[in-house]
Amino acid sequence: MNLLIIDDHQLFAEGLKFLFESIDTSIHTTHVKDATEALDYLQNNASPDLILLDINLPGINGFSLMKKFQVINIWSPVLIISAMESPATAQLAIESGALGFISKSSSGTTLISAIQTVLNGDTYLPKALSPAASNDTSEARGIETAHITKRQKEILHLLSQGLLNKQIANELGISANTVKAHLYEVFRALKVNNRTAAVKAAFQQGLISEV
């Protein structure tokens, strides 16, 4: 597995690299310090399996950098690792395209859990940073009809059958990264943060049918 760390704090990045490679020697970690180095790496190498991104970077910040990823057709899942710990920042990270947000003060165990969640195609937000959803909001989500493409409906249908990202990719003849990108758009359209909630919302809105 290839991980790309984008963080201007050398010591922190080296700590992450040591953590990952001590857990699994097959994990290859690359570290870059800013947006320029990140874009240069991504345009000249295969897309990483996961991008670990800090928000506060020299020059272009992490949110702006994620927009540039899409411009150059990089759809690797992004996990934001930040010293900023407000629910508003975490939610903005998800809205900007990240599949997860975690504080730099988190334990190694929590970080590994967040990475596993994101690699499975789900969104990771610590409970303390998750925006509280009222019952009224949940009901409103069931009434709204989201714009979902035909391909995304196919992915939702396979998701409802319990298939994982790689299985969906094989079934549809597309890459796992493409599945993840579609899921990101689906989560945003349905205003949900995980696969289970996406399937539930899709059933409620009649986007897919129960079999």
Automatic annotation (TrEMBL):
Keyword Membrane recorded: no
Record keywords, A-Z: DNA-binding, Phosphoprotein
One GO MF term: DNA binding
Gene3D superfamilies linked to this entry: 3.40.50.2300
Transmembrane helix in keyword set: no
Limits of the HTH luxR-type domain: 141-206
Protein name per the record: Response regulator transcription factor
PANTHER family per record: HTH-TYPE TRANSCRIPTIONAL REGULATOR YHJB-RELATED
Protein's organism: Leucothrix mucor
Domain Response regulatory: from-to ranges: 2-119
Residue numbers carrying 4-aspartylphosphate: 54
Signal peptide: none
One Gene Ontology biological process: phosphorelay signal transduction system
SMART domains: HTH_LUXR (SM00421), REC (SM00448)
